[in-house]
Amino acid sequence: MWCRGKVVKSGTMKLLPDNIKVLYFANDNLEPRVEIIKVKDNKRRISLCSSEESEAEYQEEVDDGLPILTDHSQLLEDHHLEALGAHMPARTQGYPWQLVYSTAIHGSSLKTLYRNMACLESPVLLVIKDMQKKVFGAFSSDPFKVSKYCYGTGETFLFSFNPDLQTYRWSGKNSYFVSGNLESLQIGGGGSGFALWLDADLYHGASFSCPTFLNAPLSTHEDFLVQDLEVWTITN
Fold first, then answer.
1. Mean pLDDT of the chain
2. pLDDT, tens digit (0-9, with 9 covering 90-100), for 104-122
3. Cβ proximity of 229 and 74 under 8 Å
4. Which of 41, 101, 156, 226 is the most exposed place for a label (fewest CB within 10 A)?
């Protein structure tokens, strides 16, 4: 369990600094042990907690809004998470993020991506790395699905690392947030191209400026090839 550490000296107790936590491990098979750790280095590694711990207890200790990943990411490093955390909607703050789709695990298939999200109702974070090693993507207020009409809300935004984070929020010019069919997934529109477009194999993509977000192209080139792709969703 996570404990708020205290130091006892000369009969008095003192709180440890906020960035220091005392982690106590105990179960029937191992000797109990205590570890003192820095929260900044470990707050996104929920796997440090024993299987008997309550995630709710751990969540109470997280108060800075940084995304907590319950699975390993091939694409998101600490500096990505720190930058993105400040731009996430308030309703996502403090919740762990779970990997629901990865080309490295599930293969490259838009159908599989849709299938993995069929029962979701929470927002999703799409992360792409192109063949030029550039990382970019989109936060969608709604999980991706096949739909005849556009869906989503003004919470939806685009992002790109160049290497610093650039974000593009809803311009208010139209509501072409997300649309999808079995042949492609589209985000943004209303102009000569989509802000982000992916084919059925999640291998060929394109990114253009569009009225929905008034964005610059997200990828290294307007037409790009996907090296890796992940989709994350919040859990509660």
1. 82
2. 999 999 999 999 999 999 9
3. no
4. 41
Pairwise CA distance, residues 79 & 66, whole Å: 11
Pairing of strands 165-169, 184-187: unpaired
Residue 48, helix vs strand vs coil: helix
DSSP three-state, residue 153: coil
Beta strand 124-130 pairing with 204-206: unpaired
Q: What is the pLDDT at residue 33?
A: 53
What are the structure tokens assigned to 56, written together? 């709710």
Dig out the tokens for 121 from the structure.
């109702």
Residue 112 CA to residue 213 CA, distance in Å, equals: 27
Decide if 235 contacts 95 (C-beta within 8 A).
yes
Nearest residue to 195 via CA among 205, 204, 203: 205
What is the residue type of 68? Answer: I
Nearest Cα to 108, choosing from 221, 236, 226?
Answer: 226
Instruction: Dump the DSSP string for 74-129.
Output: SS--HHHHHHHHTTS-GGGTT-EEEEEEEHHHH-S-HHHHHHHTTT--S-EEEEEE
Tokens of 100: 């629901």
In sequence order, the 6+-apart residues with CB closer than 8 A to the CB of 167 are 87, 157, 158, 159
Cis, peptide link before residue 89, omega less than 30° from 0 = no
Nearest Cα to Cα of residue 229 among 91, 86, 116: 116
Strands (E), 170-220: 178-180, 184-187, 196-199, 204-206
Other CB atoms within a 10 A radius of the CB of residue 205 amount to: 24
